[in-house]
Write the structure tokens for this entry.
Amino acid sequence: MTQSEQLLSQLEANRVAELDELLTVLKPKVLAHIAKADPNSPSYQKGSLGTYHEPAVLKEKFFGPQSAAAKLDKQPQGNSDELIKTIDDILEYSVNTWNPGFLDKLYASNNPIGVVGDLLLSVLNTNSHVYTVSPVLSVIENEIGKKYAKLYFNTDTAGGLTFPGGSWSNITSMHMARALRYPDTKAKGNGNHKFAVFTSKHCHYSVEKAAILLGLGSESVFKVAINEDGTLNVDELKKTIAQAKEDGFTPFYINATAGTTVFGSYDDFTAISAVAKANDCHFHIDGSWGGNIVFSPTQRKKLAGAELADSFTVNPHKMLGVANTCSFLLVPNLSHFQTSMSLKAPYLFHGRENDEDNYDLADGTMGCGRRPDALKFYLAWLYYGTQGLASRVDHAYAVVDYFVNLVKQDKRFQLVIEDPQCLQVCFYYKPREDIHDLTAVTRYISRELHKAGEYLVDFSPNPTKLDSPEFFRVVFNSPILSKESVDGLYNAIIKAGDEYTE
Ligand SMILES: *Cc1c(COP(=O)(O)O)cnc(C)c1O
Ligand SMILES: *[C@@H]1O[C@H](CO)[C@@H](O)[C@H](O)[C@H]1NC(C)=O
Ligand SMILES: *[C@@H]1O[C@H](CO)[C@@H](O)[C@H](O)[C@H]1NC(C)=O
Ligand SMILES: *[C@@H]1O[C@H](CO)[C@@H](O)[C@H](O)[C@H]1NC(C)=O
């Protein structure tokens, strides 16, 4: 045996004992990482949120990309000592999302069932492209997709599949729209059509990328003006479509949003659906962020008209705290996936006679190998119950209310949207009357909060008024947020503001 053969045979000799050993070493480290960030734990450490990247503080506890690269550039040695040390570093220097001060970027902390779901996925190592290798997880995805889709659509045929993220859901929904309305395009491409896509002015660049990828070109994307609250202006939509038609375009896709990224606004779905119908367009709703209010009996009315959509993207990994990533594309008729996507590749998808359902899930996608992310949502829903998920959403809305009322009583705070529709609150903070550069204050304070390791909050320019200053965008999306943590944030902003000099 060569040396490396010997090493391999040792390593794989007893996988059970080996995993046992690794898990045993890892378990206390993982629990300590969470305990450090959990206010209910005796080992909670204030300021345990984690990494802050700025040259001035690199020398201290935190480090920037270069020193991170240096620290993690290890000589692979084939033993577990270095591995354990490295795991310690990874835990130590990462942002600790279990901390209630993590109020950034829409997703929230993971939770115990999320860790269990990920662990199971890893142990099973299933590829959910075909049924033969994924009998259980494919059925689970099919079932949970139907159950989820039926919360939105009133059809018996509703269902959904997971995609690796919003961008893939984007592209897939656009492709589906074209393939269903213009089936010839599957074989012949765009032919003589100059297809046109309609979305709001501040939409993500990925829509343009999708249009490029589908051979429509970025000039086929028409950006419709928005109202002050960030919703799509329906009159402008009608005008833009009419103009595009006059210019020889074939409108086929309209994108609306349930919970915009900056303001959290919900479009007028009923009105947009009518425009879509009148112009033979596919009506897509991007509910990646705000779609999950469907679980809350008090909030779900904001989705009125969403049942008229042709497709709906929603991410359990955001508002529902399912472990990253878990993103569904839901449709009123599940067979639309196969109709628009399948190439009938018999070497891979053997099909199963008499089955009404397709369990070869990849046949309904543009990809092949897939991670069975649906399992994580399935387990979380099972564990918390529908009521538990509703409480999670309602709790988050109550926290938003509490914060909004708190800052409304303080003249130094100014809300950008008086009545937030979703879980983010956008506001300015002006510590003193003589301060003028609000962008600078916003950036200074959010940096100070992060440096202290207590709060990570985002800031943003105003998508409807690009020349106005940047404001705070704080996302209250976590079941562990308490009155104390919100008061703490309020006080921390004031304290940092007091230290600010222009
Ligand atoms: C986060 C977000 C996305 C992107 O979803 P990913 O699955 O994270 O790629 C899309 N649309 C909206 C409105 C979002 O908030
Ligand atoms: C498309 O993808 C981008 C990037 O992930 C995202 O921000 C955008 O809003 C997505 N839209 C949908 C429909 O998911
Ligand atoms: C839909 O609109 C939202 C918000 O304007 C945007 O984030 C998203 O990328 C758009 N998606 C598509 C597929 O047009
Ligand atoms: C669902 O779509 C398929 C084709 O994609 C079609 O054959 C079927 O009739 C549709 N069902 C309903 C209820 O619309």
Summary: DSSP finds 16 helices and twelve strands in the chain. Residues 407 and 490 are 8 Å apart (CA to CA). The radius of gyration is 25 Å. The longest strand covers residues 250-257.
